[in-house]
Amino acid sequence: MELIFYVAALIIGGLVMARILGLLKFPDVTGYLIAGILIGPSVLKIIPQSGVDSLEIISQVALSFIAFSVGSEMNINSIKKIGSKILLVTIFEALGAFLMVTLAMMLIFKTDFAFALTIGSIASATAPAATLMVIRQYQARGELVDVLVPVVALDDAVCIMAFGVASSIATSMLSGAALNITNMLLIPLKEIFLAIIIGFISAILYILISKKLKNDEETLNFTLAVVLGLTALTLKLNISGLLTLMVTGIVIANMGKVSRRYQQLINQITPPIFVCFFVLSGADLSIDGLTHVGLIGIGYVIFRVIGKMGAAYISTRITGFSKEVQNNLGLTLVPQAGVAIGLSLIASNIIPDPHGAMIRTIILGATIIYELIGPMVAKIALKRAGCIK
What we know:
The chain is an all-alpha fold. It contains 17 helices and no strands. The model has no long low-confidence stretch (mean pLDDT 84).
């Protein structure tokens, strides 16, 4: 009964706060996170920490749908028209944040290499859910949107791969194991390759079976079964569910003649899941824990933004995109939520404390800041670029 009440509180709290902050022109995502802080264990304690922990399955499911949706949004033909420029921009902005945060942690804040490498890899992630929600809410259209959507999708693929390598190196260093080529590259690459293969095979099976489905109800049920089944399988195999679901979405959306109706059906049921996820993320933030990370947390926020914006500007200028894209793409990449939160959760589970716990606290605290200002900044950038009328 308590869990049912907690879910209801997540949804109602998120809707009410989103409506209130909507009056001040804040995007809905910001309201959801503020609602989580208020009703969570740090403030009103309507949902205690035990309740937040018991609802972790919502985060797992939401992350799976986020990854699947991001993959489904990617149009390979559109990316081909833009060409290799998108890949170059994505690698630049993702690794720009990675390098900037990693170096800042080591040189300025004097953290050890394992900690700096892990949190630096998470810094490369951008929030596709928050960004896409802003685009959908304001029905944004234009060149910046055409560049932004594939960049945030590919960005998280780069981040997931970078995190796989970085976390493997970090765990080896912290456990005292000798670093070698197997620990540093072969094991992470094996996990990435396995995730891609499973995602590809699952997508092909989905394409073949979906042609025999009779109506919307069967399509929706089958799609849900595939997403949830892959989530369970990746957890069992201890590989990246985010990468697996992203690959599945990409292949389904771009191979074979599959009706895009499944996307519309999924979009009808995911809103309450995403509301719960973002509100729950806000509730999971420990206000007390923020005091322990102090300047390191602030440094993470600042140097990640510098890395993202600087690398995005340089790469879009080199590749010849318009001034609107050059001046605004970096701003739209500020939001950070779903993937980063998921990776911080993984980091806290696989990396020994205090490193794992500290990474989790920093990422959650930074996420609140990014999601307070990120969606609004993304909205301003889209408007400046003429994508919001």
